[in-house]
Amino acid sequence: DPRKYDPSFKGPIHNRGCTDIICCILFIIAVLGYIAVGILAWSQGDPRKVIYPTDSRGQFCGQAGTPLENKRLLFYFNIMKCASPMVLLSFQCPTTQMCVEKCPDRFMTLAKAYYKDFEYYKNFCKEGVTNKMSIPEILSARLCPAMLTPSKPFTRRCFPALGSIGGVITVGNSTTFDDGRGNVRNAKDLVDGVTNATLVMEARQVVMKIFEDYTQSWYWILIGLVIAMVLSLLFIILMRFLGGIMVWIIIVAVIVVIGYGIFHCYMEYAHLKGEPGANVTLKELGFQTDFTVYLHVRQTWLAFMIILAIVEVIIILLLIFLRKRILIAIALIKEASRAIAHVMSSLFYPMFTFILLAIVIAYWAVTAVFLSTSNEPIYKVVNESACEHSGLTCDPANYSTSDMKKQCPDSGCLFAFYGGETVYHKYLIGLQFYNVFLFFWCANFVTALGQMTLAGAFASYYWAFNKPDDVPTLPVFASLGRSLRYHTGTLAFGSLILSIIQIIRVLLEYLDHKLKGAQNKFAKFLLCCLKCCFWCLEKFVKFLNRNAYIMVAIYGKNFCTSARDAFFLLMRNVIRVAVVDKVTDFLLFLGKLLIVGLVGVFAFFFFSGRVKAFENTAPHLHYYWVPILTLVIGSYLIAHGFFSVYAMCVDTLFLCFLEDLERNDGSVERPYLMPDSLRKILNKKNKTKPAE
């Protein structure tokens, strides 16, 4: 039923009580547990495991304050053992690995070095090796490699210095080498081992290049983000005075920016015509770590041009069909501009939300790293010939005298990976899951707190009879205090429901990743349907939560009652919701798109060196798309932060406007509180008291 007239209602209720107390207690317990998990992870974890190379004993190469401080490089006794496909699965070559100061720079076998250059050779042997021991004794105990090949460091690991002379693979300018066991082998035999070992490190090398690009361009990225912030603030200020004109400027500017993108893609597409290698298809090119390669292929620019053209057509068609409703949206935006003008502190509230979200993300990331590095070193039996103990866990301290060593004389006990058998390690995956779930819950809680705070502030503005005289002082801080004091449980309840749906979506994505190689089409279809359903459910819950928080901010009721009231209020006005509210959201999205487009285009011309004026100013980078992509994402987040205030203001005013229509009828006793602009659009009038 429509809400009845209440003469005592003057806006957000101040005399309210705590709501959803059980969920509040549950949330506090969960957060305390989250802190305990973090402390446990920090006490057990060791991030050095992902920073330093690890030798066969599980020691870190180059770690400060240890005997290996000056031995920063990892040396493989027999790099050809890395040619096994299992290397790509276990990330560990089945050969002894040790930390060294320098990589070997010459060809040498143990047999030759034993008599004339053993002191140099000992740099690549384990401790305790002397020339009093026989060569077979040294090799059987795996104390020294059988040979040394000229090597160069790559990602702090020693790899053979392979080259090519006349199309023939060489190592140290030689096409053959002595493997230390009396066999002369071709240099190409080293290729597979080097390829597999370097493939494991290639992704890390790309990350390092990206990190170097950030160190070279970080100040320009900050300048770009400041420009995005200034543009967002400028648009909001201009909308206050030129709301209608600014909306049309946004529409035209977005169409022009996308149109220029189509033109630029066409010019690049035409420019590459006839260029060697430009007609290669993306399928033939495959995945490349150097993404600039794709910009020299015509098909890349053709794909960009088609995507932008589709976006352009969709926007134009939407504007044609919704042209009459845009005027109503403009009226809402103008009123939102007036509300924000009286509640200016609301513009800076997204910074508070951003800081809280940054803390939540940082805590989750640090805890995840410490949890993933809190395992103990596990050693496995590795052998060259058949052995029944191969792959079993072993102890390197006493392996040389163990029964496994006696039964498999050519085997060794090498570091394999990090794991553990304790209770803590058994439940480590559960702690990681808890970390992810609490991350979603806390992040959604912070977002919900921002929505309820802004809703309470703007509702205070709408229900003020004489604006702005009746608007309370510091409405944002007053609303924040009410939200935390009375409705922490409600915020936790709404964010818990959303977090459960999001964690289910994460699990579905994980299952989808695992089933990619499966041939069961029914399972794939079912999984696709579930992903689609939960995506829709998440969108609906977000919409319902948002409006429920507005009702909680106004009336102070619990989550379920507020969600029910908001849902039925919107259903009673479903046409207005579909047209006015969503058209407004679309126009605000165009504003974000314009800011991102302007910053992105400027960043492209600056970092790519296409403009001669910037050639000497722009930094030299490995991938110029790194700062461009960072600026595009960052400017969108900044614009979203500012425009989210607008969106929340419009949603709150719209819900209050619907309540106003049901509560009041325009009579002297029950006048409408909506502004004149909205009353004119709806042909509503307030009757004046007749003169005596």
TrEMBL record:
Keyword Glycoprotein: yes
Role, per record: Choline transporter.
PANTHER family, per database record: CHOLINE TRANSPORTER-LIKE (SLC FAMILY 44), CHOLINE TRANSPORTER-LIKE PROTEIN 2
Signal sequence extent: none
Places the protein is found: Cell membrane; Mitochondrion outer membrane
Reactions accelerated catalytically: ethanolamine(out) + n H(+)(in) = ethanolamine(in) + n H(+)(out); choline(out) + n H(+)(in) = choline(in) + n H(+)(out)
Family: Belongs to the CTL (choline transporter-like) family.
UniProt KW Transmembrane helix keyword: yes
Transmembrane feature ranges: 21-42, 218-238, 245-263, 301-322, 343-366, 438-465, 486-508, 586-609, 621-643
Main location: membrane
Membrane topology listed for this record: Multi-pass membrane protein
UniProt keyword terms in alphabetical order: Antiport, Cell membrane, Glycoprotein, Membrane, Mitochondrion, Mitochondrion outer membrane, Phosphoprotein, Transmembrane, Transmembrane helix, Transport
UniProt-recorded name of the protein: Choline transporter-like protein
